[in-house]
Design goal:
- By secondary structure, this protein is α/β, with parallel strands linked by helices.
- The chain folds into three domains: about 50 residues, no CATH class; about 160 residues, P-loop containing nucleotide triphosphate hydrolases (Rossmann fold, 3-Layer(aba) Sandwich), CATH 3.40.50; about 60 residues, no CATH class.
- The protein is built from eight helices and 13 strands.
- A hairpin with a 5-residue loop joins β12 and β13.
- It starts with a strand and ends with a helix.
Amino acid sequence: MLRVAGPLAEVADASGTREVRLAPRLPGGPPVAGDRVRIDDSGSQGIVREVLPRRTVLERIGSGGRVRSVVANADVLIVVAAVAEPPLVPRLINRYAVAAVAGGLDMAVVLTKDDLPHDDAEVAVVMARQRAAGHPVLIGSAHDAALVEQVRELIDGRVAAFAGHSGVGKSTLTTALTGVPRATGEVSDRLRSGRHTTTDPRLIPLPGGGAVVDTAGVRSFWLPPMTPADIAAGFPDIADAATRCRFPDCRHMGDAGCAAEPEVDPERLSSYRALVEAAESANRFARGHD
């Protein structure tokens, strides 16, 4: 499935691309870009009857507090973040890292707008932390052909989902990689957090193999319900330290005998703890409304 828009979807099969309708209350649905589906072609227009099991999925909490799938069956989540305008937010990258592990995706980071004034030391620290976590990191300008080719090599024939704040260059990179124009816009003056320029995720094949899914820009990314162990899995440094904690059920929240306290970068540990606190708060809220 290339794209979903209300009751309609654009799909690709052996005959090319076409528009189909979505049956109500789809088993396995609702569908998103990247889904594999079963189509009923017995009528004048194809109708999607079933969403097939997903190999990977990126999920977030959407409106109304419901878990919402963003993209399915991607191989790698590429978090695109600007070093300035909008400001770099390391904790957002960490949230995506947790979501990637939970959904079965690899993750990489692409930092853009390095031609703008920014704090070199801050950016170097963020890059070092992400690389230490095992995530490839690239930096440059989304308008620079050199960065575009580095991203193409990073994707390497896989299906890549771009995610991150609005206004960081996701759509610019998508257009440069695929040759298919996407909406682009300027950064919001009011919040400096970017103006939404892509509304519905769309899977676009890449020349030579692979594909890109350009997801909508966000101001925040709320994780679906998770346990502390789920969250720790998105922090390889904390997961490693957990093997040396005194107690196997250590939550790394100041627990006695916690190995993460002395071993893990304080900013990384603080980011993990904030996610655990948010998850536990959301769970309490959900229980109170059962």
